[in-house]
Amino acid sequence: MKRICVFAGSNTGNSPEYAQAAKLLGQELASREMELVYGGSRMGLMGLIADTVLAGGGKAIGVMPKGLFRGEMVHSGLTELREVDNMHQRKAAMSELADAFVALPGGLGTFEELFEVLSWSQLGIHQKPVGLLNVKQFYTPLSALISHAIGAGFARPSNMDLFLVEEHPAELVNGLQRFTRTEQQNKWGSA
């Protein structure tokens, strides 16, 4: 596993534990010589993880749509910045570059990116591991929502095997390295 794509908030949140988790994950990636792939911002948790990876001697590749985010400043110290035309190209480029995905706490953009890679895994478009860093139980409600969708007949029980949930960065990265995607049940029921 060479590169991990991290989805993260462009804000730091209202608890210092969120920033600390981003830094610990960045240290973990740098110490294992794993490259960071992310959205290219210097702001929020996104910027913190990039700064930490770079400070640890690691590589950080940012992918940013040209001119789209004037307030979300581009990180100027990246190993590599790839500019694309739009958000669809951004997500496609990050996915192509990555061997695995991690979601740190974040907002709607983080959720959207996470659900896209989970959907792609469910459909067999990729076989890459997906991990949720469950800082302060941030992703516990999301896991409960997916369980609820399973109980309501809109998702299959095997969908819970598409992602890992861990509270500590080292344990999450270890899990990603050991991950083997299980065969998914037929999405459309017993047909």
TrEMBL record:
UniProt KW keywords: Cytokinin biosynthesis, Hydrolase
Keyword Flavoprotein: no
Enzyme type, top EC level: hydrolase
InterPro entries in UniProt: LOG (IPR005269), LOG_fam (IPR031100)
Keyword Hydrolase tagged: yes
Source organism superkingdom: Bacteria
The EC number(s) this enzyme carries: 3.2.2.n1
Family: Belongs to the LOG family.
Protein name stated in the entry: Cytokinin riboside 5'-monophosphate phosphoribohydrolase
Organism: Paenibacillus allorhizosphaerae
Lineage per the UniProt record: Bacteria, Bacillati, Bacillota, Bacilli, Bacillales
Name of the gene encoding the protein in the UniProt record: yvdD
